[in-house]
Each structure stands twice: as C-alpha cells, then as structure tokens.
Amino acid sequence: MSLLPGATPAPPTAPRRRPLHGKGQAIGLGFVVLYLSVIVLIPLAAVVATSQENGLAGFWKAVTTPEASSTLKLTIGASFLVAVINCLMGTMIAWLLVRDRLPGRGFFDALIDLPFALPTIVAGLALLTVYGTDSPLGLDIAYSRLAVVVALLFVTLPFVVRTVQPVLLELDREMEQAAASLGAGPATIFFRIILPNILPAMAAGTALSFARAVSEFGSTVLISGNLPFKTQVASVHIFNQLENDNVAGAAAVATVLLVVALVMLVALDVLQRWGARRG
Amino acid sequence: MATALLTLTLAACASTEASTDDGSAAGSGGEEVTLSLVAYSTPQAAYEKIIAAFQETEAGQDVKFEQSYGASGDQSRAVEAGLPADFVMFSLEPDMTRLVDAGMVDASWSSDENKGVITNSVVALVTRKGNPEGVQGWDDLTKKGVEVITPNPFSSGGARWNLMAGYGAQLEDGKSEADGEQYLADLLANVPVQDESARASLQTFSGGKGDVLISYENEAIFAQQNGEDLDYVVPDSTILIENPAAVTSTTKHPKEAKAFLDFVRGEEAQKIFAENGYRPVLDGADTAGQDFPEPAGLFTIADLGGWDEVLATFFDEENGVVTEIERNLGVSTEK
C-alpha cells in the first residue's frame, strides 16, 4: 500500500485459486457460514420476507405514507450529517490521542468507549438531563431535530475514532520525515501522505457510524419528543407500526433502512478503493 | 471430537433436568401449582400485595406465581405468540380481544356482571403542585400557549384513552362530532412532546416539560405516593378507563386460576387496588380512604361506539381522524 512517490505500480496479476486443503478448513468455513446465517442472514431475510406479505404494492404503500416518508427523510438526513461530522471529528480525536502529548490522554481514551458501554436509554436520559428543560447549563435543545442529531453524535462517537486510531499508530513515520526533508510543509505531508493511508479506516468508521445512526432507537426516543413529521425517527415509526399490528408495514420500512445502510457501506467501500488506488 | 463430547454431555444434563421437573410437578394431592400471571405494567405493586394476600387463603395455599409485567400491547402480543399465561390483565379491551381471536381466551370472559373488568380509573388532568395554571377542565387545554403532554396514540394503546376522553367530553357538553374533531386538532397542536407510553409521559412532565399532563387517575395517585409534587383534576366530563382481566383457555390449572380471578374480584383484593389508586368495581368496596370523585359527565368507550369502531374511525393509519389531524399539523409545522 505504501508506494514511494514516482514508482510505477507493478502490473496486477490474477490471484491463483488455491484448493481447500483438508477437512479442517472446510469445516471451519462451514461453521462460519452457519454462524453468520443463523445470527445475521436468516433473520434479515425474514425481515425482507415479512415486508413482502402484502406484495410489492403493499410494500410501496407502507413506505410512502406521509408518516413513513417524513421519518425516513429525517433519519437518513440526520444520519448522513452525523456521519460527516464523525468523519471529521473522529479523525481529529484519533489524531489528538495518538500524536499529541495531551495530559490525561489515557482518561480521554477510556472515555471514547463509554457510548458503547451505556445502554442507549441511559444515554438518552443523560442527554435529556443535561440538555433538557431543567438543564443545569441553561441549554434547552430537547424535543427538536437538533436533539436528534446530538443523540446520534453521542452514540456514534467511538466508531471513526476506533477505526482510525490503530492505523495512525501503525503509520510509518519515516515517510513523513522523508517528505519533510524534501521540503514538504505540514499540510502537504498530511494531505499527500497521511490522509491516503487513513482514508480506508475513515471510510470504514464513517460507514459504521451511518449504519448505527440509522438504526438508533433508545436515545432518540427519549430526547426527540417523537413529534410526527417533525422529530420522529424511522425506528420509532417502525415501533409504532408494530404496536398497531402492522408487521408487514414495519418490516417494509425496516427493509428500506437496510437497503440504505447497504448502499452507504458499498459506496464507502468503493470510495476507499478509489482512494487506495490514487494513493 | 471435543465438540461431539461436549454436545453429548449437555444433552444428558438437559434430559435429567427435564425429568426432575416432571417429577415434582405431577405430584399427588396438595401439590404445588405455579400460575403464570401476565399483566400490563402499572398494577405491579398492587398485584404483589394481592398475591401475598391470596397465598394466605385456603385456595391459594399451594399456589406459586410467576409474574410478568410490561406494556399492555406488548404483553398481549407475547401471549399470542406463545408466552405461557394462566391469568392475564390488560389496560384496554382490544388487547384482550386479540387473545380471544387467537383462541387463547374464551369468549365468555366478559360475561360476568362487570363484563370482565376488574379495575376502573378515569382520565385526569395532572398539573404542577397548587395548579398554578388554574386548569379546571378540557377547555383550558386548548388555550394559546398551554403545553399539554400526552403520549403518542399510535405507539401506546393505552394512550388512546386520553384523546377519546377529550373528544367524548366535547360530545358530553352537547357539541357536535365535528366540534369534537376540531377540539382534538386544537389539543394536539398544543402538544410539544409525544412519548412512547403513559409512564414516559409522566417522566417527561415530572422532568419539567409542559403545563398539563393528560393521564390516568391511578398514574397521578401513583406519582403522588412516590413523592412527586403534582396535583390532579378530574374534569366534569371524562371517560371511564376499564381494565379487563381473564383466565386463559390454555391454562393447565383452571381451578386455581379461577380461584385467583374470584379473589381479585373480591373485597380484599379490590381494597388493595384502591390503596394503589385504582377504582374498585365491586359494589360497596372499601376505597381505603382514597378520594374518588364522581364526575357528572362520566362516559364509557361504549358510549362512543366501542373500541372496534373508535379504532377504525379515529386511529386507522390511513384515514383515521387523528391520523389526518397529525398530518395536517405536520404540514403546517413543516412550513
């Protein structure tokens, strides 16, 4: 991956397909496929199948009701914004944790994992206490779209930080020193040498934080106020549909979220490969 | 090899456990029976006392209980999906009807003198201590600048009591159905937060948001008993909340379950319900010193056409009255 500037890349060779040796590898592969199927693939297939209960027409109807489309717009829009913010802030935080001699660095490092450890309802409650009606800071942003974004930022904080951090740690400093010795300024070093190397990690982390934001329920349900057409997110809409025994409708909106997350993951993967080829 | 051994060992353990269980359950006379009670969340405190009282009676001596509490709709769906239950209680009738349709509760569940209902409550208006806004009735809720807290009627079945109470109160006062619908539109325009459930709404209100909370009388009493600084007003016209309970037809212990249901309808249990803020259905029951005002314009869901009609007219997700109101509000707020 780390090409010296000026070198020509070697012509690509087709990878040789190696036959699986012995039963051990086959059993291992079989086990992994079984595990993934049982835990992930079959339940997801069940969701998609349930959404087809009323046929494609029923699916389209469930997804295009004014309520469904407004919640989907809000969820996807907010998640996209949160993903972009995380991409920037997460990289900055990872940089500070790895490169700068911050006092109390260990403490901040442990803090990053806190959103993983907290149940999302507790996160929502904490945010509501600090940024709600009785806010000790005097900041009342609860029950608004801003509240949705803040809740999503909280729960998706660790993703980009944790994917970029190990790459930054492993980064070979010699390249930067070589560039500096050749007269490159800090900005050039960052954009021409460091960024191409951490771009795959940033893309992966951003994809994860988007997928996580799209599906968030516990924290947004508390702090957003769930006003239809204003602050209600897609996961709450799905919950409402289930409460009204409209399982097919709920599965339809869930399938849309699945597809959106998948598209984002694929798009970021493509971006990452393009970035790697350019670098 | 190791995996195979492990699986065999686990299977052996499981089968020995199962056989021991069978041995203890199918005993001779005086055997211990375990009843599974599935109910909605708010009567939990009351049931814990009622069960203790039941176990002191002759009929309840050898009866143990496994209790499950949760949102009424979720509990009903869980039983439909197979959660074992001998005795069920929900916050509104459609959750029981779901089980009747699934063949798990006999259609005769509502044939007693109280139509299957074992506790009542009323929709009340909860205010801050001392009622600083001077809320007396439903008309105060549609005034400009008043913030009303009520749960989302589409996420919580129980939340629908609140809106039907407001609507029905208008009809009770002699207004037309169109006026009633306009009232609901004005009311919903004053709602800044729509929580998932009644309890969540109570939390939001206790947390400082809103001027008035539409809730059930038993929730208000519960909050006061837990030290919240709240007052509540029972408006002149309001709806009677009826909570149904029944013995399932899939129970393996019909005798004991029926005995428990009879106990729950009896004096001692009704008094415990009253202590916890519920209105007893038994005529002449001890209200344990609670003040349960009788509103002059008390009506029931039957007066509004029954739950089936109300759900279809108001809460149908395509063209229900409330759905339309929410959509119109949404469009106007988006502008």
Descriptive notes:
The complex is a heterodimer of chains A (279) and B (335). With 279 residues, chain A is mostly helical. Chain A has a single domain (41-278), classed as Orthogonal Bundle (MetI-like fold). Helix content of chain A is 76%, strand content 0%. Chain A contains twelve helices and no strands. Chain A has helices spanning 22-51, 55-64, 66-99, 105-112, 114-117, 120-131, 145-170, 173-181, 186-215, 218-223, 234-243, 247-278. In chain A, α8 packs antiparallel against α9. The longest helix of chain A has 34 residues, at 66-99. The mean pLDDT of chain A is 88. By secondary structure, chain B is an alpha/beta fold. Chain B has two domains: 33-119 and 242-280, Periplasmic binding protein-like II (D-Maltodextrin-Binding Protein, domain 2, 3-Layer(aba) Sandwich); 121-241 and 294-334, D-Maltodextrin-Binding Protein, domain 2, CATH 3.40.190.10. Helix content of chain B is 42%, strand content 17%. In chain B, strands 1, 2, 3, 4, 5, 6, 7, 8, 9 and 10 form a ten-stranded mixed β-sheet that branches. The A-B interface holds A 65-67, 70, 128, 132-134, 142-143, 221-222, 225-230, 232, 236, 239-241, 243-246, 249 and B 73-74, 77, 98, 152, 154-157, 191-196, 200, 207-209, 315, 317-318, 326-327, 329-331, 333-334.
Highlighted features:
heterodimer; A: 279 residues; mainly alpha; MetI-like fold; 12 helices; 0% strand; B: 335 residues; alpha/beta; D-Maltodextrin-Binding Protein, domain 2; 2 domains; ten-stranded mixed beta sheet; 42% helix; disordered N terminus
